[in-house]
Amino acid sequence: MSSKSAQLGRIHQRVLDNLTTAVVVLDRQLTVHYMNPACEMLFAISARRALGQPIQQLVHGPAHLIDHLANGIGNGHPFTEREVPLLLSGGHHATVDCTATPLMEPHAAQELLVELVGIDHHLRISREENLLAQNEATRAVVRGLAHEIKNPLGGLRGAAQLLERELPGDDLKEYTRIIIDEADRLQNLLNRMLGPNTLPHKRELNIHTVIERVHSLVTAEAPPGISLVRDYDPSIPSLNADADQLIQALLNLVRNAVQALGERGCITLRTRTQRQTTVGHERHKLAVTIEVVDNGPGIPPQILENIFYPMVTGHANGTGLGLSIAQSLVSRHGGLIECTSEPGNTVFRILLPLERHHDKH
Q1: Angle made by CA atoms 212, 226, 269, in degrees to the nearest 5
Q2: Within the chain, how many helices (H) and strands (E) appear?
Q3: pLDDT by residue for the chain (361 residues), tens digit each?
Q4: Whether the Cβ atoms of residue 305 and residue 348 lie closer than 8 Å to each other
Q5: Count of alpha carbons within 13 Å of 198, Cβ hemisphere only?
Q6: Neighbouring residues of 194: CB distance < 8 A, sequence distance ≥ 6
Q7: How many CA atoms lie within 13 A of 99 on its CB side?
Q8: How far is 94 from 97, CA to CA, in rounded Å?
Q9: CATH architecture type of domain 3-118
Q10: Chain-centre distance of CA 47, in angstroms?
Q11: CB distance 341 to 308 below 8 Å
């Protein structure tokens, strides 16, 4: 090999080694012939251990993906598939865009070049932006609606009070009392939809003190068949927040989980730190995640996308306000609540920035 060819080979190797796109080369039996460092990170396995192994043993994806790979190398047709869900070693999930290109070189074994571009980060940012926009739009609509309803509602209640004074008998006053009570009930409902109207009173606190308070409250009121499991990261630094508002937000999530479980099940309260994370358009060096995980039946897909809108609920007796209020309270702390759900694993995840200069007063 000439020095020029050797130099070109080293350049190619450096390029492959520094790509952020995961690259893996498969033979006709779909066994691994090569993978670059980005692919090692994605699959959580070293190239030395992966070489010679079937791709099916390293990563699990949709059944048709393996068929497409086999057809691609057999027929020589490239293909691209978007948003492919993969199950990786250790039970980790990833969503990727997959592009497969047959390598058809004369006098060489036929191989398939597979490029995997992780899109989880972009999907998450898009989902967060949608949730934040959803929360802002919801609050604007509710504020406008409350203003339009409060005035005639106040007039209705006042007229009923005046009428009650003029009525001669208690039997007739019973009807005006119903009008007044129902007007008060609607007023309370509007106030709950608007959520707390006070700014957060922030102070330094340990997030686990908040969670322990919620744990105590729910333990006292939950059915005996429901267990609450703690999974805390004790190294989480203190947070500048309003303890009462965070307790209310978390309590709404946990009570929602209890209602979903019914008489029996398990709820896990988990805390972790997350570095270099984005909430909406803001990048944060450090954030805390608080997860409420239940093993109930899951949230129906037709409800999941709108779960944080007011009056959206999957429970017959629910008001659909708890999650909307929780999202609003967390949003006041510069954070966000996300939700993922499938049967046996529903996760509500509160994400709160830990840097004090990001607090919103």
Answers
A1: 35
A2: 11, 12
A3: 566 666 776 777 787 778 878 899 999 899 999 999 889 888 888 888 999 999 988 888 888 888 889 888 888 889 998 888 888 876 777 888 899 999 877 767 789 999 998 776 565 656 666 666 666 666 666 666 666 777 788 888 888 888 888 888 778 888 888 888 888 888 777 766 666 666 778 899 999 999 999 999 999 899 999 999 999 999 999 999 999 889 989 999 999 999 999 899 999 999 998 876 777 667 778 889 999 999 999 988 888 777 777 655 655 555 556 787 888 888 888 888 888 888 999 999 999 998 654 444 4
A4: no
A5: 6
A6: 139, 142, 143, 146
A7: 8
A8: 10
A9: 2-Layer Sandwich (3.30)
A10: 32
A11: no
Report the alpha-carbon distance of residue 71 to residue 91 in Å, rounded: 28
List 116's β-bridge partners, or say none.
Answer: 22, 98
226-231 vs 265-279, strand pairing mode: parallel
Distance CA 146, CA 150 (A): 6
- As beta bridge partners, residue 231 has 270
How far apart, in Å, do the first and last CA atoms of the chain sit? Answer: 67
The architecture of the domain spanning 203-358 is 2-Layer Sandwich (3.30)
Residue 90 makes CB contacts below 8 A (sequence gap 6+) with 44
d(CA 153, CA 312): 24
- In 3D, which of 355, 356, 207, 358 has the Cα closest to residue 285? 355
Cβ atoms of 250 and 287 within 8 Å: the answer is no
Residue 301: both structure tokens together = 């897909």
Closest to 100 in 3D by CA, of 89, 88, 84: 84
Residues in the chain: 361
Q: Are 99 and 114 in contact (CB under 8 A)?
A: yes
pTM equals 0.56
Q: Which residue has the tokens 């954030």?
A: 287
Which residues, in sequence order, are bridge partners of residue 35? 24
Instruction: At 252, list the tokens.
Output: 């709404």
Rounded to whole angstroms, the Cα distance separating 324 from 252 reads 9
